[in-house]
Write the structure tokens for this entry.
Amino acid sequence: MPLIWGIAVAAVGAGSWWWSIRLTLRAHEGQRLSWWATPPNAPARAIIMRGLGAAATVLGLGLVGTSRVLEPWAMGVIALILIGVPYFGAIAWHNSRLPRSEEQPET
């Protein structure tokens, strides 16, 4: 049973994480985003959903790990894929669509 609940919680958490990234990108159309810092005027709901999504994803993967279906290190790899890849990919895609100018610092 922890396997099913873990997959469900991780899926909801990953969806919330991805949704928060999309909210942030839409709020900053035309502005470059930093790789490591939260934008100064990020929507509050995006920040909340980012935290809840990451926590739910890790909790869900922890529940999947208790079922002994996969090794514990595999849960870390899956977490990196569900959280890290969409985040860095979305920021790279967003920043690549914007022209580089002298006023905007390289991030």
Remarks:
- The mean pLDDT is 87.
- The two ends are 44 Å apart (CA to CA).
- The chain has one domain: 2-30+41-96.
